[in-house]
Amino acid sequence: MSDSEEHHFESKADAGASKTYPQQAGTIRKNGYIVIKGRPCKVVEVSTSKTGKHGHAKCHFVAIDIFNGKKLEDIVPSSHNCDVPHVNRTDYQLIDISEDGFVSLLTENGGTKDDLRLPTDETLLSQQRLKLDSMMGRT
Question: SMART domains per the record (predicted)?
Fold first, then answer.
């Protein structure tokens, strides 16, 4: 190759890891995950119809959005690919809630995570404070 040659690479994805991966619809099961209408969801019900005279078997998914709890449904041919989100769940122990709504959480390695803010809904915030105070014996 000479130094004057230029190489152009066309990328169809942005840099970094993908947020989803393809999986055949017929292999997605209850308690798995799927993307429906652009939202990551946990599957709560799957039913599969038999093949028709001229078509594929179809999977009917009923799922709950993992962020807002809304119920979504989709019907996909069982042989087609669906987007499945990469989901990592981490549980933390709640230590305290500050006056400005930030929570202090205990991590698995014994450190604290203090950069998470609760929703600004004052009713929800006061309910969470009351629950924490009663758990900590500060009533």
Answer: eIF-5a
